[in-house]
Each structure stands twice: as structure tokens, then as C-alpha cells.
């Protein structure tokens, strides 16, 4: 009898489950619109019939569900088929998605300056029961984070947070680790929320101090720029002076070379004129000698007078030696000029012979 009733009850439960599941899947899952600082929804009534002793909840995947039983206990309700004692339940939805909040705090630093930090924190609920047991869980979480951020500013110097004149500032990872460590130190809150990410979105220093430092930086860069400009001007002046000196040196060398060339050309011109004058004088002497020989040959006494013949031979020999040709037709090699005797320095031999021949011709 007991086994039969057990089979009947199990059959009934299976039939009820299939019916509840079939009806529940046809309903759309309710997605609650949570507020900015809200992670727990308002209550929804859920009635569990004494006949069915079960309830099918079509739960959205972005939410938890926690029900308050008629006896006041918190029960986690899963999506799908749930066997529950009969009665009226208050169902609350808890947001299980990542939430993002922006926290901005202004506080005085360790060295007495005013600094504002802005954090962007990503967090989510990991224990829905604790979210139900905590009053205003999101606001409480934000209060703790704000307190931690204030403490961080108070324990650091201005230059560590905002940056010094060299541009060095605190590492963003240091702020993130500090916030996480402080959160993990609060056991109840750490079991309720998990911090996924902490990002330092902005930091603002004391306006007066910032203005002073900006002016200092501007003056510093102006001094650096002026020093660099003076250095460049000095280098440019040195280069110009070196170039001017090189140009002067090149001009001096060019003028000296030009003067040497002009002197050499003038010397060559004088030598050429002297050579031309000597050649003309030589030609005149030769022509005068030839005229004298012609006159002597026309004299009836030639060639009977041996003295006239001798003078003519000497004159022809002298003419041949000056023209580079001997009387036998052979070319005479030029010999280095020998210094003439002092007494013949002003008298040419060809002129002497010419005058002698002319005197001879007149006597005959």
C-alpha cells in the first residue's frame, strides 16, 4: 500500500513538473531595470500552490533571484523548476552584471596641498544572499571606496599624486592595488562584491600651486631656449668668423698668385721686346754688311786685292755663325755664349768688319 502511494505521488510530481516547465518556458524572462546605485530590485509576489508544491521561474541570465519564505528565511531561487514549500514568497532580483561607478574625491595631501582624484571602478555582486542581508549595499560599497581614496590622498605627497616638475607621478597601479587591498580587508563587503577593475581616470592639483608650477616650467623652458639660442648664435658667429678668415686667406693667396703671374708676364713681355729689338738690330747689321759686301764685289779691284777678300770671308763667317749655318752649308750647333772681352762690350764685330770693308772699297 505504501509503495503504491509512493508511485502515485511520484507520477503526480512528474506530471506537475512537465506541466509547470511547459507553461514556464512559454513566458518571457523578466529583466529588471536597476537604478544607478541599485543592485536589489523591489519585491515580487510568488505563490507556491499546496497542490503543486513547486514553482517554475524563468530567470534572466543577468540576474540572481532570492526569495523570502513565509517563515522569513532567505532562499536562493534558481532559474527553472524549484521545489518549494507551499505559501507566499517575496522574490527579489539581484544584478549579477558588472557595474561601473565613477568616484571623485578632493582631499588634502600629506604636505598640505589640495588634490582631486577620479576613479572608475568596475564591480559585481558575487553573493546574492549577502546583498539581501545588507542595507543599501551599493551605497555602502561606495562609501568605503571614497574613504579609502581619501586615506590614500592623505598619506601621499602632492608630487607623488599630481607629478613633480620633472613629470614624475604615482603609478596608477599603486592606486588600484591600494583600493583592492582595502576592500579585501573588509571581509563582509569582500564576500558581497568583487572589484574587477580600478582605473584612475583623472587627477587635478591645487589651481594656485598648478599655476605656480606652470609659470616655473614656462620660465625654465624660456631660459633653456634662450641659452640654446645664445649658444647657436655664438656657434654661428664663430663659423662666420672662420669663413671670413678663410675667404680673406683665399683672396690674399689669389692676389699674391695674380701678382706673381702679372710680374712673370711683364718680365716675359720685356724679354720678348728685348729679343725683338736684338733681332731687328741683328737684321739691320746683317743687311748693312750685305750691302757693304755687294758694294765691295762691285769694285773693279776685287778679287785682286787679298785684303778685301779676307774681310769678306770674315764677314760671311760672322753672318753664318749668327744665322746658325756654316759656309759649307752644315748647321752649326749653338754653343753657350761666352763672355765678351771688356774692350769689345760696346762694339759688334760684324759692324767692325763692315766698316773696314766700306773703308777698303772707298780707297779703291
Indicate the topology.
Elements: H1 2-25, E1 44-48, E2 54-57, E3 63-68, E4 74-76, E5 80-83, E6 87-95, E7 99-108, E8 114-125, H2 128-133, H3 137-154, H4 158-161, H5 172-185, H6 187-192, E9 193-204, H7 207-297, H8 306-323, H9 349-363
Antiparallel strand pairs: 1-6, 2-5, 3-4, 3-6, 7-8, 8-9
> Given the C-alpha coordinates, what overall shape results?
rod-shaped
Beta-strand portion reads 15-25%
SSE string, helices as H and strands as E: HEEEEEEEEHHHHHEHHH
- CATH-level-4 superfamily name of the largest domain: Band 7 domain
Count of β-strands = 9
- Describe the biggest sheet? 4 strands, antiparallel
**Level-1 CATH class name of the largest domain:** Alpha Beta
| Number of H/I helices | 9
Q: List low-confidence stretches.
A: 325-346
Give the strand order of the largest sheet, numbering strands 1, 2, ... along the chain. 1-6-3-4
Helical residue percent? Answer: 40-55%
What value does the Rg take, in angstroms?
A: 65 Å
Mean pLDDT: 82
- Tally of domains: 3
